[in-house]
Amino acid sequence: MSNTDEVHALAEAILEAARVAGLGVTVSYDDGVALRTIYANDAVSAIAGYSVDEMLGDLSMTLFVPEDRERMQSVLSRCRRGETANGTTEVYVARNDGARVPVELSFSMVQLGGEPAIVTFLRDIRERKQAEEALRRSEKRLRQLTDAAPDAIGVVREGKFVYVNVALTRLFARPIEELVEHHVDEFVHPDDRDSCDGSSGEFRVLHPDGRVINVELSSIPIDYEDQPAILGFARDTSERKQMHAHLAFADRMATLGMLAAGVAHEINNPLAYVALNVESLARMVQRGAETAVEEVAAARTGLARVATIVRDLRSFSTPVAEERWPVDVEAVLESAVNIAMHLIRGRASLKRGYGAAPPLKTDPARLGQVFLNLLFNAAQSFDEADETRNELTMVIESPDPCQVVVTVADNGPGIPKENLERIFEPFYTTKDSRTGLGLAICQTLVTSLGGRLEVESEVGKGTKFTVRLTTPDLSL
């Protein structure tokens, strides 16, 4: 087979492959002014709605819709100058029946029998365009749905928003353009940035005007535009937190009201012997007695006891904004014991098991309220006062430098299973003297402090509450 025959065979094979692939092919001579089509395959005929014979001749430019012809002339001019037409061009073919068919087109200048010719390749992209339009409509509907959603919705990739809905712009009080240009951390309160890693939880958002709002986030990993990302749903919990704070304060005041008589007794006892010591001291001073120093020391001890009780009451009863700093968990627990001691004394023996624990970055007032409610619950669990039989045990442990675990346990009657399942429900109580808010608020407070509150109980053996709290390693 000669080279010419091989070339013809190769050309035939290429044209057949194009036909099978549905790729339209035309070959046109170019006289520098117009194109004269000398070959068109069946695929082009099907696209344009003309017969193959009708495709031949001077139809080349009129094959396209009027608004695309100028662009096609520009591409053709570049081919005539010997420039390579990079890639493909999307244009519309004007079918014989008046319909418009989107095609993907490319030109190539060749020499045919010593004359310049243009080979044109066309691919019908109607199905692709329909799919793109369906996708566009679907994305539009999705955008409408997400923009109508009351919760803020966003997609984060590599720390930046790649999608936000209208509610998220309201939540962050910033336009979409600003949200997508900056790292998410720039909108988060500095104290929360270390803990805000895109996983579900709570954090605070800074508004441009300096306001701070509380946000609750739920998130899941997804693939977005074929890349890993995080889909997040967020809502403003500021009002809910304020409501919880009011409820917590109301419960705190109710607890103090129930403790008032006992606390008054706790204060009156040391005040009474202070008063007696002062009177004795006055007489001793008149007599010049040497035991005056001992009486003064006793008076000071009594006053210190009063000061401790008053201090603990003040820290417990004063409504303050949530503030976190490194605190000694043992000191917070002992402050709660000081206030609750009159309830415990005579009812149960108090046992302590305090291990070494790191400072905990937390809110001492809120943590103190948790401990006081747990102590109050434990003391009230005993049906009869009996220090020889009833035990209330407090344990502090630190499994690692970033975790502190506090347990408050009693060996009282325990809680039936059907009650245990509802124990953290607001207003659920088995005692007429209680509001039913104490344990519900404890759970809310512990959760807000980044911890967990757990309960175990067995009828006839007692109940154990466990507070698990985490904190950054402050020794680093």
UniProtKB/TrEMBL annotation:
SMART domains in alphabetical order: HATPase_c (SM00387), HisKA (SM00388), PAC (SM00086), PAS (SM00091)
Domain PAS: 31-83, 138-194
Enzyme class, broadest EC rank: transferase
A GO MF term: phosphorelay sensor kinase activity
Ranges where the Histidine kinase domain occurs: 262-473
Catalytic reaction equation(s): ATP + protein L-histidine = ADP + protein N-phospho-L-histidine
Domain of life: Bacteria
Keywords (A to Z) from UniProt: Kinase, Phosphoprotein, Transferase
InterPro entries per UniProt: HATPase_C_sf (IPR036890), HATPase_dom (IPR003594), His_kinase_dom (IPR005467), HisK_dim/P_dom (IPR003661), HisK_dim/P_sf (IPR036097), PAC (IPR001610), PAS (IPR000014), PAS-assoc_C (IPR000700)
Secretion signal span: none
Domain PAC: 87-137, 199-249
EC number: 2.7.13.3
NCBIfam families: sensory_box
Protein name: histidine kinase
Organism: Labilithrix luteola
